[in-house]
Specification:
The chain is α+β, with helices and mostly antiparallel strands. It has 8 helices and 15 strands.
Length: about 290
């Protein structure tokens, strides 16, 4: 990985600020787990006393902030990792949880305005198997977010009433039982909506989940936005609309699974989202 530039990260006054371990200043043998294009992995090899990750932050709204850690693990003895977390002059030491339920609220910190340094340091020899990030949010904003989440929670009674549904992972890489696969636009054009919906209805499904893209990026319908990014990755037939209408007539809901396409390197490059060089990827693969 190339050396990171030291820059201050702005702390969001009205949202959660995420300090990714992979984007901090790393002191020790830790490396980022490579998890594919378009994703940021967690730090591994966080296993020696004194291993530290630091970030410089810029606080525009001084206040009391809640701090949470996403990470956890245990060492050979089975004991949990103990870390020291420092923000400016405020320091606390805590034992982290295991990986199950790995988001752990540590406490509250009074952040002064201006430049500050946040650091997390391993204090014992137990392994912090996965360290992803530190989160900061003003205490009153955290409380407001909890209230908003409760009031905006969607009514999911229809899922209970529908009892069960089916997910169909039907993509450009799907293969027929016999013979060769058709090109995706042709497969979309020949999709038998009536037969599909009758089958789903006979199986008693209350809902259907259908992939609109995965691995290779294709969309089963016309889409100007996609065409502007990369031509010939959408389809003439609006299969989604037809399926939604036909399923709705039978009281069956349709949900769509959308994948951004980071496994499809030509698409990902055309969409301007490639942030790693080939050298970076090779380094990740050999150090993870």
């Amino acid at each position: 990985m190339h050396p990171k530039e030291e820059k201050s990260l702005p702390v969001q006054p009205d949202a959660v600020t995420v300090l990714l371990g992979a984007e901090g200043r790393i002191h020790g043998p830790m490396t980022e787990q490579y998890v594919g294009l378009g994703k940021r992995g967690w730090l591994i090899n966080f296993n020696e006393t004194g291993n530290t990750v630091k970030w410089d932050i810029d606080v525009s709204q001084p206040d009391v902030y809640e701090l949470a850690v996403l990470g956890g693990g245990h060492g050979p003895s089975g004991a949990l990792p103990v870390v020291e977390i420092a923000i400016g002059e405020s320091v606390t030491t805590t034992e982290l949880c295991e990986l199950v339920g790995w988001r752990q609220t540590i406490g509250k910190f009074d952040l002064p305005p201006g430049k500050n340094t946040v650091a997390i340091r391993l204090m014992n020899t137990e392994t912090l198997h996965m360290f992803y990030s530190i989160e900061l949010v003003r205490s009153n904003i955290a409380s407001q977010m909890e209230r908003d989440a409760a009031s905006k929670r969607a009514n999911t009674n229809w899922l209970i009433e529908g009892k069960y549904g089916f997910m169909f992972h039907w993509t450009s890489q799907s293969q027929p039982r016999h013979g060769h696969a058709k090109p995706y636009p042709e497969a979309v054009r020949d999709f038998n909506v009536k037969h599909f919906v009758r089958t789903v209805e006979k199986m008693g499904a209350g809902h259907v989940i259908l992939t609109t893209s995965h691995a290779e990026f294709w969309f089963p319908g016309p889409n100007d936005a996609i065409d502007q990014i990369m031509p010939d990755r959408s389809c003439d037939r609006d299969l989604i609309s037809e399926l939604a209408d036909a399923l709705s007539e039978r009281g069956i809901r349709l949900m769509l699974y959308f994948h951004p396409g980071h496994d499809d390197e030509p698409w990902w490059e055309f969409s301007g989202q490639v942030f790693l060089s080939v050298d970076d990827i090779e380094i990740y693969k050999h150090t993870s």
